[in-house]
Design a protein that fits this description.
Strand content: over 45%
Strand order of the largest sheet: 44-45-46-49-48-47
Shape: globular
Largest sheet: 6 strands, antiparallel
Family: Belongs to the EMC1 family.
Subunit structure: Component of the ER membrane protein complex (EMC).
Organism: Nicotiana attenuata
GO biological process, one term: protein folding in endoplasmic reticulum
Keywords: Endoplasmic reticulum, Glycoprotein, Membrane, Signal, Transmembrane, Transmembrane helix
């Protein structure tokens, strides 16, 4: 009895380690989270007062953020959403961050230290117009600092304290594009200047206290204007004429307007090319871009134009910055290979430089797009300058005293496509980690873990334990592991930059700004579309590195030239690129590879012709053998048509190209535009693995899943239902869903939802589809599931037929044979709006499926597929309960523990990517938006492995302790028996 009690106590003691330290010291073992802000559009420095030095920025991702100037960390940020574009930012009263957004319709004030919103004002107008924000420092109305806003045709004056509208002036009836608001020093009037009808200069003089229009003056310029007006002083501006060959100086004082026109050729000698007036605000001068050179033109007090200097290879110019009484400076950036030169000049003394510094940057950051400067006072009481630089790849750098203080990879906030790649195999005798632990460190680590088990560890000890676990996990190795957890995430950003992110710790292994996706003469507006696996060698082919294909176009039009770039995944090098090419409307990865593991791709152009890649004789011979079996479909949303296509023949005789193929239309499904509009489609992943086709039910019956990679889910709504939720009554709203075979165009299933509308988000997996929509009658979101089964194999339930081999399980399937299918469906209420949906996928397809739902709150929710079983009933039988069928409820449950992202938010969530690991129980999940989040999921728990942080040393100690305890108790027992015998 004593032996049993001792063994039980020892087992409980050894297992208590995992219970005590389940969460606190496992943070970061299986997931990582990174925060970004996107490409910076505007920046305002706040460094005057003592304390934290910060810069407030707004970005193209509609993010307003406050950054630490010392380290580049985020103090606070807010993501305003896709439909709330930030137009301008500024700082008012030294304590409020003012943002103007939604086309000049919403003005907000945020508390500068913590980012809390102080007030919000909605500004209404009559017509869309330019948005202007101005927060003058010396302009007051009734002791309130005022904020002036122009937007939607109205000029508003608001209080900085509470956002109340003091007055507003309607300028919408005037045919004018207001471009600047000006306050002459010492005056109680403001000027609103702009252009009307492209040739009329307009100026309005308005009383700042009550908004009364004091004077309106206008004057036409015979040559007309082009581009925006550049303001150089409180009473002077410069603009290009309509031909772009002359500069027009405009003087306006007390309602009197004067024009002075000068040919650019007379100002700047030996320069040819079209002129562009830069939007930078320079004190007393303008910057004119001509070719690759930048010319600075000074405006005198009399309004005359004088050329100051012409500097070659200038990439960016900052606005003017007043840094002392009567002095202001501005910064300009020049490129010289990998070197960037920063020069701070002042308009008062052009020949002298306030700052002249150079520093090196990674060549894969590209050119400088924007620069913002700020001054500070050095210890010797002289003025120093720092520069915030926005690069071509959307990264952000802070440069000071000739060095890069910090950098941020904010291009990762705009990922447009993701694929994965395996890491190289670890070779024998090669240590990749290059980290060796001495015996003392090994013992020290296990002693600390033992203290944690005994609950004797201090907070510092717990931090050390966590750090040791992260180091010993070996998750940051650059080689593949036997479980398939370590991979490379290959991401393509909107800037045309390709980066490889290690799944272990989220670090960037390499990054490459693709040359083919940079703006050039032949490609003015390049944009990336997607990434495809190009060459994936087997694990035994170590002499070949995997590579990916990046596809893009040179514009938004369907007939724009195409771009192809081939990238080595391990080295991060561009192997080759092809541009400009034929147009690219669709990319079809084919299930064929050549002798060096290159995957065949068929690129469909805007006219429906196919182009085969790689362009090799071997590829064309493989493709010719399968010429009649290549099908694809297209969805024409604008015309509400589905079309099926097939490769018909080689067009070598017509144009002499062996890799050019003609296609023909097989079928079409036309939805009447007056009754239905296509709003969503979904299909199965080509790489999805289905473990078994048979599904055994609780009554010992067998159903066979209808498994086809040619099925397409289509959702349509009535025309009135395409508007926003709540804008249509339930009686006029219908949602229709279809399951269509894309080879024959046959509609296998159709279902309608009366009183429902989109947006619709759907996922298709195996033989089922789940879709999310809004029910207008119930005023709630719903999720429905459709499962489709093959009735043609129902006769295979006879055991005798299976024994005698008379079944049809191995018979070939053909889409042209009319399928005998049945469907089962069910609908449930769901309490969340959805941004995106995905489904988990494992290596063998054995593990239970989970739906990964990106909620409107930018979190990822895991919902087990069992909750979306169409066979759920209110009172399931005992056999159904044993099978795992859950009793039917009208709503789907949401448990706090089901959030994959826990308490984190993936701001601006766009997509969820699931990647199967080699371990069947585990799925890798990557969610991206403005932020990045990665984790590992085990929907059916890790039934096939021990956890990564399992302590084998503690297990060994436990076994040794048990052996010693058994030996000691055996000796005690022998002695006791001997003593009893002697009695």
């Amino acid at each position: 009895m004593a032996i049993r009690a001792f063994l039980l106590l020892l087992i409980l003691f050894s297992s208590s380690y995992y219970v005590v330290a389940l969460y606190e010291d496992q943070v970061g073992l299986m997931d990582w989270y990174q925060q970004y802000i996107g490409k910076v559009k505007n920046a305002v420095f706040q460094t005057q007062k003592a304390g934290r030095k910060r810069v407030v920025v707004s970005t193209e991702e509609n993010v307003i953020a406050s950054l630490d100037l010392r380290h580049g960390e985020i103090f606070w940020r807010h993501v305003l959403g896709d439909n709330d574009t930030i137009d301008a930012i500024d700082i008012s009263m030294g304590k409020y961050v003012i943002t103007l957004s939604s086309g000049g319709s919403i003005l907000r004030a945020w508390n500068l230290p913590d980012g809390q919103m102080v007030w919000e004002s909605f500004l209404r107008g009559s017509k869309p117009s330019r948005s202007l924000l101005w927060t003058p420092t010396n302009l007051k109305a009734d002791k309130d600092d005022v904020i002036l806003v122009y937007g939607n045709g109205y000029l508003h004056s608001l209080s900085s304290i509470d956002g109340d509208i003091l007055w507003k002036k309607d300028l919408s009836h005037k045919s004018i594009d207001i471009q600047h608001l000006i306050h002459p020093e010492g005056s109680e009037t403001i000027y609103a200047i702009g252009v009307g009808d492209l040739s009329q200069f307009e100026a309005y003089i308005i009383n700042v206290r009550n908004g009364e229009l004091l004077k309106h003056c206008s004057m036409s310029f015979p040559g007309g204007f082009s581009g925006d007006i550049s303001l150089v002083a409180s009473d002077k501006a410069v603009v290009l004429d309509s031909s772009g060959s002359s500069l027009v100086s405009i003087s306006f004082t007390e309602g009197e307007i004067k024009f002075q026109q000068v040919d650019i050729a007379n100002l700047v000698q030996h320069i040819s090319g079209s002129a562009v007036l830069l939007p930078s605000k320079l004190e007393g001068m303008v910057a004119v871009k001509i070719g690759k050179s930048l010319s600075f033109i000074k405006v005198t007090n009399e309004g005359r134009l004088e050329a100051v200097d012409t500097i070659p290879h200038v990439e960016a110019v900052s606005d003017s910055l007043p840094f002392s009484e009567g002095q202001s400076g501005f910064g300009l950036i020049q490129h010289d290979g990998t070197n960037i030169h920063l020069t701070i000049k002042t308009g008062n003394d052009w020949k002298s430089h306030l700052v002249e510094e150079s520093f090196k940057v990674d060549q894969h950051r590209g050119l400088v797009h924007k620069v913002f400067i700020n001054n500070y006072i050095r210890t010797d009481r002289t003025y120093g300058f720092r520069a915030l630089i926005v690069m071509e790849d959307h990264s952000l750098l802070l440069m000071q005293q000739g060095a890069i203080v910090w950098n941020r990879e904010d291009g990762l906030a705009s990922i447009i496509d993701v694929t994965t790649s395996e890491l190289p195999v670890e070779k024998d005798g090669v240590s990749v980690a290059k980290v060796e632990h001495s015996l003392f460190e090994w013992l020290k680590g296990h002693l600390l873990k033992l203290k944690g088990t005994l609950m004797l560890a201090t907070p510092d000890d717990i931090a050390v334990i966590q750090r040791l676990r992260l180091q010993s996990a070996e998750k940051s190795k650059m080689t593949r592991d036997h479980n398939g957890f370590r991979k490379l995430l290959i991401v393509l950003t909107r800037a045309g930059k390709l980066s490889a992110i290690h799944t272990g710790d989220g670090r960037i292994v390499w990054s490459l700004l693709l040359n083919a996706f940079r703006k050039s003469v032949t490609c003015e507006n390049p944009r990336g579309l997607n990434i495809h696996q190009w060459q994936v060698p087997h694990h035994h082919a170590l002499d070949e590195n995997p590579s990916v294909l990046v596809v893009g176009t040179c514009g938004l039009n369907s007939d724009a030239s195409g771009i192809l770039s081939f990238i080595d995944v391990y080295k991060g090098e561009e192997l080759n690129y092809l541009a400009p090419l034929h147009s690219i409307a669709q990319v079809i990865p084919l299930p064929f590879t050549d002798s060096i593991e290159q995957r065949l791709h068929l690129l469909i152009d805007a006219e429906g012709y196919g182009h085969l890649y790689p362009r090799t004789p071997e590829a064309i011979s493989i493709f010719q053998e399968e010429l009649g079996n290549i099908y694809w479909y297209s969805v024409e949303v604008n015309s509400n048509v589905l079309r099926g296509h097939v490769v018909k023949k080689n067009c070598v005789s017509e144009i002499g190209d062996d890799y050019f193929f003609e296609s023909s239309d097989l079928w079409s499904v036309v939805f009447p535009s007056d009754s239905e509009r296509i709003i969503a489609t979904s299909t199965r992943k080509l790489s999805e693995v289905v473990h078994t086709q048979a599904k055994v039910t609780s009554d010992q019956d067998v159903s066979y899943k209808y498994i086809s990679k040619n099925l397409l889910f289509v959702a349509t709504v009535t025309p009135k239902s395409t508007s926003e939720i709540g804008s249509v009554i339930p009686e006029d709203s219908w949602l229709f869903v279809y399951l269509v075979d894309t080879v024959t165009g046959r509609v296998l299933h159709r279902m309608s939802h009366h009183g429902s509308q989109g947006p619709v988000h759907a996922v298709f997996s195996e033989n089922w589809v789940v879709y999310h929509y809004f029910n207008l009658r119930a005023h709630r979101y719903e999720m429905s599931v459709i499962e489709i089964y093959d009735q043609s194999r129902a006769d295979n339930k006879d055991v005798l037929k299976l024994v005698l081999g008379k079944h049809n399980l191995t018979a070939a399937l053909s889409s042209y044979s009319r399928p005998e299918v049945i469907t089962k469906s069910q609908s449930y209420f769901f309490s969340h709006s959805v941004k995106t949906m995905a489904v988990t996928a494992t290596a063998k397809g054995i593990t239970s499926r989970q739906l990964l739902i990106g909620t409107i709150g930018d979190q990822v929710l895991a919902l087990d597929k069992h909750f979306l079983d169409p066979r759920r009933t209110v009172n399931p039988t005992q056999a159904e309960k044993e099978e795992g069928i859950i009793p039917l409820t009208d709503s789907l449950p949401i448990m706090p523990q089901a959030y994959v992202t826990h308490a984190l938010k993936v701001e601006g969530l766009r997509n969820i990517i699931t990647v199967p690991a080699k371990l069947e129980s585990t799925i890798l999940v990557f969610a991206h938006g403005v932020d990045l989040f990665f984790t590992r999921l085990a929907p059916s728990r890790t039934y096939d492995s021990l956890t990564e942080d399992f302590s084998y040393a503690l297990l060994l100690i436990t076994i040794v302790a048990l052996v010693i305890a058994i030996f000691v108790t055996w000796i005690w027992s022998e002695r006791k028996e001997l003593e009893e015998k002697w009695r």
